[in-house]
Amino acid sequence: MPASIAQFRAILQASALGIVLSLTACATLPPPTAELADAQRAVVRASDADADQYAADELARARERLAEAQAAMAAGREQKARSAALAAAALGDLAHARSREAVANAQVAQRRAQISRLREQLDTAED
């Protein structure tokens, strides 16, 4: 009888190990749909911020990576899709930031020119 209990225990342990291994093998990351959506939003946000004018290179690269991500997703290469989508989102955010920076710099230059003109007007009025 003790031999059969030992055999039963070994079979049970092997079965438990097999179940754990099969569940682990099935546990994969979900498809990168959220990453793709984030990348699309980042590219649109950059486009809306006039990145075509102020950060054209970054925006073009973001669009290329987004297209790569979409193609990889369609081909079932989810890891490639995920990494390309993350890169597209980062490049889109960079393009957005650079565009906003360029707009802010242009506004600062415009304000400085106005200040300069006002100072000149004050100087001529005092004379």
TrEMBL record:
Residues 34-110 form the DUF4398 domain. InterPro entries: DUF4398. Residues 1-27 form the signal peptide. Keywords: Signal. This is DUF4398 domain-containing protein. The lineage of its organism: Bacteria, Pseudomonadati, Pseudomonadota, Gammaproteobacteria, Lysobacterales.
